[in-house]
Specification:
- With about 350 residues, the chain is α/β, with parallel strands linked by helices.
- The protein has a single domain (about 15-325), classed as Aldolase class I (TIM Barrel, Alpha-Beta Barrel), CATH 3.20.20.
- The protein is built from twelve helices and 14 strands.
- Strands 7-8-9-6-5-4-3-2-1-10-11-12 form a twelve-stranded mixed sheet, covered by helices on one side. Strands 13-14 form a two-stranded antiparallel sheet.
- Helix 3 links the parallel strand 3 and strand 4 (about 120-125).
- The longest helix has 13 residues, at about 140-155.
Length: about 350
């Protein structure tokens, strides 16, 4: 191939996000399982999961299309006992990262690093065990902390902590920002809550308030090309201002100091700029491709996952991408989401195999 595939809006696809399983040992209240909804089933491996060879074959094919990065997700990807083998067999040209809840990193982080894992994101929505348990429905708080330490010790720094920001966690953001500013090797990724995927719009908060607060306390702000994201570098003097993300005032007089903690916001909801810079295609654990997290009407099976079928499906999914889901999936007067009829003729639900 001469270069990465581009969709009709000029976005080159250079990354893939591969779900290895829908199984998970957590039961997070906000989970949408890569946009598929709550599909979690028994904890035993399913015959529907792509096997090791399927995953590797897919990566080898899309490498030929200029894909140079892969992120392994789930469910909880570390429930796959072949994870190290999958990473070891991933094409050398690809950067390899993983999103995990961290509970299985102790004892496996070094092996994952040796296999070729470059980076890791660990889901951590609170710094208090009880608050953490309320969001994740898990008592594994100490295991997650141990997992973060294991990742740092294995050389997987910086470890990026993932935190979904919604009604349950808004009050924890300040503490989490201070936490990453104080601790070397940690970064924070604040993820906008997606009410249209979880069915709980009343849990939503205004993510712009988080942006505004971070802009006030940041030592500097940078832009990341991917998704046009902003990166806020926060001081570590321990004096982060108090903030009420549900409507209180922001202390604009907080003194700047040398920023050490990097905080990034993932805010795709009806965000044209975010989607305009997206170069990623997703793969479900069952071997379906999807062009956008927030679309399931365009799911396309890779069949028996021969190289020809993989290539044909990948090309079709890239060609079928829409400009941004805030235009494709729109909110009506009743606060419900529906498809924009403009796109229904070109991307019918019947196109899913």
């Amino acid at each position: 191939m001469s270069g990465p595939l581009a969709d009709e809006f000029g976005r080159e696809v250079t990354g893939v996000r591969v779900s290895l399983t829908d199984r998970c040992n957590f039961d997070c209240v906000y989970c949408h399982n890569e946009g598929l909804g709550d599909t979690r089933g028994p904890m035993e491996p399913s015959e529907d999961e792509m096997d090791t060879d399927d995953v590797v074959r897919f990566l080898e094919v899309v490498e030929g299309y200029g894909v140079d990065s892969v992120k392994f997700t789930g469910g909880e990807p570390m429930l796959r006992q072949d994870l190290e083998e999958i990473i070891r067999r991933t094409p050398d040209s690809m950067e390899v990262s993983m999103t995990t809840n961290g509970t299985f990193l102790p004892g496996r982080a070094e092996a994952l690093k040796e296999a070729g894992l470059d980076r890791v994101n660990v889901s951590q929505d609170a710094l208090d065990p009880e608050e953490f348990a309320a969001v994740t429905k898990s008592g594994a708080y100490e295991q997650v902390l141990a997992g973060v330490e294991a990742a740092l010790d294995a050389g997987l720094a910086p470890v990026k902590l993932n935190m979904v920001v919604f009604e349950h966690t808004a009050g924890y953001v300040e503490g989490m920002v201070d936490h990453v500013a104080r601790n070397d090797g940690l970064q924070l990724q604040l993820i906008e809550y997606m009410p249209e995927l979880t069915g709980k719009p009343e849990w939503n908060i205004d993510i712009q308030r988080v942006h505004d607060w971070l802009a006030e306390i940041a030592d500097r702000v940078e832009h990341r090309e991917m998704h046009d994201r902003k990166r806020y570098f926060i001081n570590d003097d321990g004096n982060a201002p108090e903030v009420d993300l549900d409507g209180g005032a922001v202390d604009a007089d907080h003194p700047d100091a040398a920023g050490t903690g990097m905080v990034e916001i993932v805010d795709p909801v009806e965000n044209e700029s975010f989607c305009a810079n997206c170069g990623r295609v997703r793969v479900t654990h069952e071997g379906y491709l999807k062009g956008c997290l927030n679309r399931n009407d365009d799911l396309r099976s890779m069949g028996e996952m021969s190289r020809a079928e993989i290539a044909e499906t990948f090309e079709a999914v890239v060609a079928n991408r829409v400009p941004y889901y805030g235009e494709y999936l729109i909110e009506n007067d009743d606060g419900e989401y529906e498809f924009n009829e403009k796109y229904l003729g070109t991307t019918p639900a019947s196109s899913a195999d």
